[in-house]
Amino acid sequence: MVDRYTKAVLTAIAVLLVWLSLCTPGKRASARTDDLTAAVMSAQQFRLVDSQGQIRAVLGSIPAPDGPPALVLWDKQKVQRATLTLGVDGTPMLALADGNKRPRVALSVMKDGTASLILRGETKQPRVFLVVMPSGKASLTVFDDRGKETWSTH
Known about the structure:
Blueprint: H1 4-22, H2 25-36, E1 45-49, E2 55-61, E3 69-74, E4 80-86, E5 92-97, E6 103-109, E7 115-120, E8 126-132, E9 138-143, E10 149-153
Antiparallel strand pairs: 1-2, 2-3, 3-4, 4-5, 5-6, 6-7, 7-8, 8-9, 9-10
């Protein structure tokens, strides 16, 4: 007759053998491959983190859960540097900031096709404003550091 200790050891060995058979390298590789080739993946938000666990990018509705879709990127100093989003009316917008969190570039395309580019200096005042209308007509305006128009062409 087998004593309790021997039963426990045999049970542990059996469990270990089953576990090892399920965790063979071939099985893990095929499971990983299946995960990578999924046809559709759905989520409300995806976060990319660096090796220290710091968020470097977010793709999702911001503010969650019902805000517009956006892709937001942060640098290593945790400064938000780039945002690609849609406005309430569906207008796509790209905003770029410097390392001091100051907005520097804004690019958008309105529903009617009007495209605009705004370049800013160290202040929040626009320095260059470029607009191209759906008809192809363009205008370019240059401002001083106080926001006063210094040059323009239409």
